[in-house]
Amino acid sequence: MTSATKSILFLCVANSARSQMAEGLGQLLFGDRVRVQSAGSEPSRVNPYAIEVMQEVGVNLTTHHSKSVQTIDPDSVDTVITLCAEEICPLWLGRARGIHWPIPDPASSDPALTHEEMLARFRAARDAIRGRLETFSAELKEPD
Fold first, then answer.
1. Contact (Cβ atoms closer than 8 angstroms) between residue 140 and residue 26
2. Which residue of the set 11, 36, 81, 89 is catalytic?
3. Three-state DSSP class for 124?
4. Is residue 124 scored above 50 in pLDDT?
């Protein structure tokens, strides 16, 4: 990422977990330096597990909502980061720089998974995103 980056869009399918967590962490890390947004090709709702694990690190997602990629102005985005791993990521047709971080989807409809197992899946995704964002944030900072 260069110092010219002023806006990042985190893009996924449902805009319910990974992209929402990335948006919250991005806002925390970048502050006012970079506009951070998230969206999905098939928006649903913010996953309650995402809300819970983000509260553990001081990020409040309770006011977030899933947004359609069609509501994002392509001219307002400098960098698009897709977060899909096993599913097909939405295609971004704007002129923004594209980066792909394949983070496995922590959501599951498997009824055998316990609450703690689901939290562990969401924590792993959150921590993977946070690690990549911290590296990305360091690249954004201008040399002294």
1. no
2. 89
3. helix
4. yes
For the question of residue 89 being annotated catalytic, the response is: yes
Structure tokens at 40: 């999905």
> Annotated catalytic, 84?
yes
CA–CA dist 123, 21 (Å, integer): 10
Give the whole-angstrom CA distance, residue 36 versus residue 21: 11
Q: Is position 12 annotated as part of the catalytic site?
A: yes
Active-site residue, selected from the candidate residues 77, 84, 107, 129: 84
Cβ pair 66, 40 in contact under 8 A: yes
Q: What does DSSP assign to residue 4?
A: T
Report residue 4's pLDDT band, with 50, 70 and 90 as the boundaries: low
Residue with tokens 């993977």: 128
Average pLDDT of 6-30? 95
Residue of 9, 12, 17, 69 with catalytic role: 12
